[in-house]
Amino acid sequence: MPNEHESQVFSENFNLLKCLVNKMFSWHNDKDNLIGVxxxxxxxxxxxxxxxxxxxxxxxxxxxxxxxxxxFINNEEKMEHYxxxxxxxxxxxxx
Length: 95
Prior knowledge:
By secondary structure, the protein is mainly α. The chain has helices spanning 4-24, 31-48, 57-92. The longest helix has 36 residues, at 57-92.
C-alpha cells in the first residue's frame, strides 16, 4: 500500500504515464491493460528512485515503465503463440 508521499508522486506522474502508453503503444488494442502494468511499474520506480544520482524522476520512471510494458507485451505474444501452436497440434492430431 502506497504511503502519502508515494501517492502524491504517483498522482503527479500518472498523466505522463497515460501519454507515454498512448504515444509508444498506440498500435496495442488493450491500452487499459498496459496502463495497469505501467501503474505498477510507476509505483516500483517511485520506491526505487534515488534523487542523489542526479537523474530526473520521470527520466528514471520512464525507463522502468517502458521496460516492464515491453516485457509484458513480449510475454503476452509468447502466450498467444503457445496457445496457437497447441490448437494447431490438437487439430493435426485429430483431437
